[in-house]
Amino acid sequence: MTLSFFIARRYFRSKKKRNFITILSTISMVGVAVGTMALVIVMSVFNGLEDLIRGLFASFDAELKIEAAEGKSFEVTEDWLDSIRSLEGVEVLTEVIEDNALFDYNGNQIVARLKGVSDNFLDQGRFKNGYFWGDTTLGTDLRPAAILGRGVGFFLSVNLNDVIVPLKVFYPKAPRSAATIDPNQLYSSAILDPVAFFSIERQFDDEYVIAPLEFAKNLLNYGNRRTSLEIKVEESHSINSIQSSLKELLGPRFLVKNTDEQHAGLLRTVKLEKLFVFLTLTFILAIASFNIFFSLSMLAIEKKKDIAVLKAMGAPDKLISRIFLKQGALIALSGAIIGLILGFLICLAQEKFGLVSLGISSAVIDSYPVKIAWTDFIWISLAVIGITLLASYRPAFIASKVDTVKEL
């Protein structure tokens, strides 16, 4: 144990005098503890929200998605598709045709996203999070069926138990040179049997209708073109390694996106919000830590004679500075440790028991999600160390400049 730390610890733990300086030091420690605890809780909530978003998107999105680098769609052949299926690590490949269409149910109409998928779409673990009610099949070739987002279904007032009323789908045809006055020649139409609803996230619930690939191909007249391919990776293989292999196989004409890249904008927004909240709370913590500055400044004034004695005994200015820097560190780090422990325990209790609920009856989860990340503890500790050094530097400098002759 160094001399500077020994003296700083004696000042910190001294119970001989309970004066205003001691009270101010205690207030400083409590302020750091509360600020640190708030940082831990808020950062953990943002981590939980980020994980929740990823989990919800994973219920609808594929682990890997292949799209054209340019254009809306691309041509496929069976040999080309087989080359992708045969790639080691690829478990399921789903063909997708996706476009906007007009939906009509019993006179109610809405423009939504028609997503035609091959039969193995549900084999990719879709809708494992969120809600799903109804039939899990997409009908037959003669009677194709549709799985509707809850928002689309509620807007159209779809009754799953009414097998008589069909869901009509309309899609505009490509314009031709020869004009026609028959409106029926301007669009293609077909019917679906609504058999199920899904509810994952509003972005999907209010926009998507899932239908068989053959239905979408015939209605939209896509032929051998596809808008995307969705891939499920075998559990024994890394998604990143399969993504790299697909990029190498397909070349620059195609984009291969993982789940994060498919919603990069939203996840980037969540991370930016987390960063700005961290900076804001750190600034508040810095303001609370001004008490450290005042308590150390007053301690330096009170201990002038002690400092003069130390200097008369040959103590250099650096030793005096270290005493007060370590005194500030003891105050701040004690508060930080208490705050980290309290924050961890509160987050653990929220994770296990759901102490704070969302207050939304139709939410996918009942309480605020939290996820404890140890990297957050590191960043918070570094922030506390930086604030402590800033708050302690000036009092330590003043203490080191005490005039020995004048004070003795």
UniProtKB/TrEMBL annotation:
Extract the PANTHER family matched here: LIPOPROTEIN-RELEASING SYSTEM TRANSMEMBRANE PROTEIN LOLE
User: Where do the TM regions start and end?
Assistant: 20-46, 275-301, 328-351, 371-391
Q: Spell out the subcellular localization from the entry.
A: Cell membrane
One biological process term in Gene Ontology? lipoprotein localization to outer membrane
**What name goes with this protein?**
Lipoprotein-releasing system permease protein
Q: Per the similarity annotation, which family is this?
A: Belongs to the ABC-4 integral membrane protein family. LolC/E subfamily.
Which residue numbers delimit the ABC3 transporter permease C-terminal domain?
A: 280-401
Ranges for domain MacB-like periplasmic core come to 25-152
Major site of localization recorded for this protein: membrane
Task: Note the Pfam families from the entry.
Answer: FtsX, MacB_PCD
Keywords in alphabetical order, please: Cell membrane, Lipoprotein, Membrane, Transmembrane, Transmembrane helix
Source organism phylogeny: Bacteria, Pseudomonadati, Bacteroidota, Cytophagia, Cytophagales
Would you name any one GO CC term? plasma membrane protein complex
UniProt membrane topology term: Multi-pass membrane protein
Superkingdom to which the source organism belongs: Bacteria
Q: Which organism is it from?
A: Algoriphagus halophilus
